[in-house]
Amino acid sequence: MTDAPAPTVWPCLGYDDAPAAIAFLTALGFTEHLVVPGEDGSDVAHAELAWPEGGAVMMSSAAAKQGPFAARPTGAGSVYVVTDDPHSVLARATALGAPIVAGMRDEDYGSTGFSLADPEGNLWSFGTYRGQPA
To answer: Are 63 and 15 a contacting pair, CB within 8 Å?
Structure first.
């Protein structure tokens, strides 16, 4: 694995239980980059989790969101994560008991991957497709 560039696009998700979401995602292979506790100490005001192969995601507790972000429902997000080894991510997801919503498959456009639902219903797809060069 090479040094990944700093992410410049950040999917942002809200969770009813952000600490549990952080635990779930780190068990899948993400690493905690930054976690800022909320005012009451149990919520997460802001968190950043990095994917070792490049990219990252931001999240917060739903209770910590303000303005137009507070109106968005939790569990309605969908994120695609590139990985060279989707089979190992699937093994970790299966060990966690994550619902697999689309099993491992080879796609016509050259990707191998699968999709799961996190504990709050957000959909995460892990696959080898890196997109078309710009």
So the answer is: no
